[in-house]
Amino acid sequence: MEKAVVLLSGGLDSTVCMSVAQKQGYELYPISFLYGQRHSREIECAKKVAEYYQVKKHLIITTNMDSIGGSALTANIDVPEGDENRSEIPVTYVPARNLIFLSYALGYAEVIGAEKIFIGVNAVDYSGYPDCRPEFIERFQQLADYSTKAATQDKREIKIEAPLLNLTKAEIVKLGVANKAPLELTTSCYRGGEKACGRCDSCLLRLKGFKEAGLKDPIPYEGLL
Ligand SMILES: [Zn+2]
């Protein structure tokens, strides 16, 4: 069975991404990060999702990106209310996060002999983060092909797969349901409370996705949502 590294945050998209890799018949090697995020709820969700898939190993890497700061997710900056009309990249962007995460995943894939890395980035219903776009994934692939012993000496390309890249949030939700992904174990809220806030960018995108898919989100929200 071929191996695949899956970047697993514990959110909706990365969990659906896990389900895609599983459907394709890969042995799953999820990797999650304690990167100095202000709440640990997502990592607890990632652990549950990894357990659901009965993976052989769930790698959790600690890397203190809060020492760089510059994001509402790692520094003492308020998480803003969601705003669909915003034209600038919001303060929830974490500087170079996917570049750093993919770099770890690439090194891990090389060590365990995985042929693919799955990442659940999405460039349709998203917050405008530059490291979620197809241009970024394509260029990271080019960089990866020059970065490892696997690619240069052994001529073994490690392929970056972003199966959700061009899907709407509703399509991602439907795909997850079709693949029996454990969406009830995931979290998307930037605020990390016991219940999702229902007001941050990430909650609004998720709720919009379920609504458009004609489905009810299985996770609890604050208030009367
Ligand atoms: Zn929220």
List its salient traits.
10% strand; 7-cyano-7-deazaguanine synthase; ligase activity, forming carbon-nitrogen bonds; 225 residues; 5 strands; Rossmann fold; 35% helix; zinc ion binding; binds zinc ion; ATP binding; five-stranded parallel β-sheet; alpha/beta
Written overview of the protein:
The protein is built from seven helices and five strands; from the N terminus they run βαβαβαβααβαα. It has 225 residues and is α/β, with parallel strands linked by helices. It has a single domain (3-213), classed as 3-Layer(aba) Sandwich (Rossmann fold), CATH 3.40.50.620. Strand 1 (3-7), helix 1 (12-23) and strand 2 form a beta-alpha-beta unit. The longest helix has 16 residues, at 97-112. The protein starts with a strand and ends in a 12-residue tail after the last helix. The mean pLDDT is 94. Bound molecules: zinc ion (ZN). Zinc ion binds at residues 189-191, 196-197, 199-200, 202-203.
Strands in their spatial order, largest beta sheet: 3-2-1-4-5
Q: Tell me which CATH architecture applies here.
A: 3-Layer(aba) Sandwich
CATH class: Alpha Beta
Portion of residues within helices: 25-40%
Query: Which compounds are bound in this model?
Result: zinc ion
Q: How many domains, in number, for the residues?
A: 1
Coarse shape: globular
> Mind describing the biggest β-sheet?
5 strands, parallel
Q: pLDDT below 50 for ≥5 consecutive residues: which ranges?
A: none
Portion in strands:
5-15%
- CATH level-3 fold name: Rossmann fold
